[in-house]
Design a protein that fits this description.
disordered N terminus; alpha+beta; 5-stranded mixed β-sheet; two-stranded antiparallel ribbon; Heat Shock Protein 90; 7 strands
Length: about 575
């Protein structure tokens, strides 16, 4: 396998296994108990008790302020108290990711000190973060030799695991395998699923670095399966992504796309342009690779046909054989023409889709960019005149234009994927309430800006059969339209209607401008791509609604509209309650 992919996996799994291999809350409580049981400061120093409580509650900013204040202003501090304050401050800096300052603070702690072995453990972890693996290994080996059951807040399995990571970075694979395997046995004994995900990932990386794929891949799969049992989205996302990379290296494009789609589901974000672009690039790459395979197969088939035809020509020595060859050739020619005709029709459809998308891009995006261009000139003039209030209003309007343009681009991407059948699609049971909440969350700023009230009245137990990603796109576009065509201080409601035994109605109701009967019927029945509304200040491309209709149909559902001019609109999406075959 390519070296660059293996380097990627190595970095990734060291990240998900957490260089600090411990359960933070458990560790904080253990260390607090150790201090209370063995230190007299807890009973006689109120400042110390306060800082200890802040430590347990993970209030790092307060810890940094209080410890620094005590160290710098309290001249009566004895050595023991100051050592503890350095400990708390160092740990607070560590949690705030100020690693250099944390290291300098921990190094001020000298023997004798109750928590000295914990300090050494943290210094080892900081050395790992600095990629100083030799120094980290020396520290962790020292901790390993001093560690015993009476020391709280440190687990021998975590130390062994970190030693294994050091050996792995130093390319001492035999020693790394020994320690990582030992730590896995301890994690399995404790049935610690969260830590097992990282441990399995690291041992897999070890084998992957040595090109022992038959040993590495089962551990990658174990890490992926165990990630399903933990409530950690980062672990779920990273294991799915690594499985996608493994399958890409194995040239299993279908499996790779499945894992990649699962990875994207855990990282779904409406405003994350980079992730959407990366997904598009990956799917484009996979599509190109798939098409290249098809081209190669067609070339091979053409060569075989040419060879077959030539062989028939060479043996046409008798009239009967010649006639037979002519008949066979004729039939193959007809079949080839049918194939070419089918390919031409498919190409025409793709070209039509391309022209339609280009038309939308040239019209809507050009309009948006031109509006922004003119608006920015107004902003500059207002700033030159120090008219901040007007400049602010223009910038707010610019933000709305940019948001609209982004939504158009997002719809274009999904429309193209739908038309070219590149999108991953799986109908499954969804908790509707949480899907609605996920979509609504990204519109909170826009709702506040327009002073709109939105109420999600969907019952938390309501379930519906749909592809989760396409359901989000449907809800997002319908909610976007409801906001767009609602006046300030209006209301938007999302709720369900149970009028049919087989289908559940999802209703997005707004108190906006509404529409007449003719417009309503056209939107439901006709294949409208660009729809110029009567209200020129609320023009929409119509692509979002067309995309919704296509995705609703693909989810085996239906769309209906109830609306009157000036009395708002109800967009009703009817989706199956149970899986429908066919």
């Amino acid at each position: 396998m390519p070296t660059n992919n293996k380097t990627f996996l190595l970095f990734f799994f060291l990240l998900i296994s957490n260089i600090i291999v411990c359960q933070e809350k458990k560790e904080l409580i253990s260390i607090q108990q150790e201090i209370i049981s063995k230190s007299t400061l807890h009973n006689k120093d109120e400042n110390f008790k306060k800082i200890l409580e802040l430590y347990l509650n993970k209030e790092w900013d307060s810890i940094l302020f209080n410890t620094t204040n005590q160290i710098e202003t309290n001249s009566k501090l004895n050595k023991e108290t100051k050592q503890y304050y350095y400990f708390f401050k160092g740990y607070g800096l560590y949690k705030k990711k100020k690693f250099k300052s944390a290291k300098e603070t921990f190094q001020k702690i000298t023997p004798p000190f109750l928590l000295l072995i914990q300090v050494k453990s943290y210094l080892g972890e900081l050395a790992l973060l600095e990629n100083n693996y030799s120094n980290a290994l020396t520290i962790f080996k020292e901790v390993e030799s001093e560690l015993n059951s009476s020391i709280k807040g440190i687990e021998i399995r975590n130390i062994k695991h970190n030693i294994g990571i050091c050996y792995l970075h130093l390319k001492k694979f035999k020693e790394a395998e020994k320690y990582l395997t030992n730590s896995i046995q301890l994690y399995e004994k404790e049935k610690d699923s969260t830590e097992l995900v990282g441990a399995y990932g690291d041992i897999a990386t070890l084998y992957y670095e040595q090109y022992k794929d038959d040993l590495a891949i089962p551990y990658f799969k174990k890490a992926y399966e165990f990630s399903k049992t933990v409530d950690n989205f980062t672990l779920k996302s990273n294991t799915a992504k690594n499985m996608a990379v493994v399958e890409e290296n194995r040239k299993d494009i279908t499996a790779a796309l499945k894992y990649r789609k699962e990875y994207e589901q855990w990282n779904d974000s409406l405003n994350n342009h980079n992730k959407i672009w990366e997904l598009a690039q990956l799917e484009k790459k996979l599509a190109v690779e798939k098409k290249q395979i098809e081209v190669n197969l067609l070339k091979a088939e053409n060569k075989a046909k040419i060879a077959e035809r030539n062989s028939f020509l060479y043996i046409t020595m008798a009239l009967s054989i010649l006639l037979l060859v002519i008949i066979v050739f004729y039939r193959k020619n007809i079949k080839s023409k049918r194939t070419i005709l089918a390919q031409k029709e498919q190409l025409d459809t793709l070209n039509e889709t391309k022209d339609r998308l280009f038309s939308i891009v040239s019209h809507d995006l050009r309009s948006s960019v031109n509006t922004l261009k003119l608006s920015n000139k107004k902003v500059i003039k207002n700033l030159e005149k120090e008219n901040i209030k007007n400049a602010h209003k223009i910038l707010q309007r610019n933000s709305t234009i940019v948001s609209s343009a982004y939504n158009l681009l997002d719809n274009l991407l999904n429309w193209a994927m739908l038309q070219t059948q590149q999108s991953y699609f799986e109908i499954e049971e969804n908790h509707l309430y949480f899907t609605v909440e996920h979509v609504v969350y990204n519109y909170i700023p826009l709702l506040k800006e327009k002073e709109l009230q939105l109420k999600n009245s969907v019952d938390k137990t309501t379930k519906v059969m749909a592809d989760q990603e396409s359901l989000k796109i449907i809800l997002r576009n319908l909610l976007d339209n409801a906001i767009k065509f609602s006046d300030s201080e209006g209301d938007i409601k999302i709720y369900t209607q149970d009028k049919d035994a087989s289908f559940l109605d999802i209703v997005i109701e707004d108190s906006g401008i509404g529409m007449d009967v003719s417009t309503r019927e056209k939107l439901v029945t006709k294949n409208i791509t660009v729809d110029k509304r009567k209200h020129t200040n609320r023009i929409g491309s119509g692509l979002g609604l067309q995309l919704c209709k296509s995705m609703i149909q693909k989810n085996k559902g239906k769309l209906s509209i109830e609306s009157e001019l000036g009395k708002g609109t109800k967009m009703i999406v009817s989706l199956p309650k149970l899986l429908i075959n066919g």
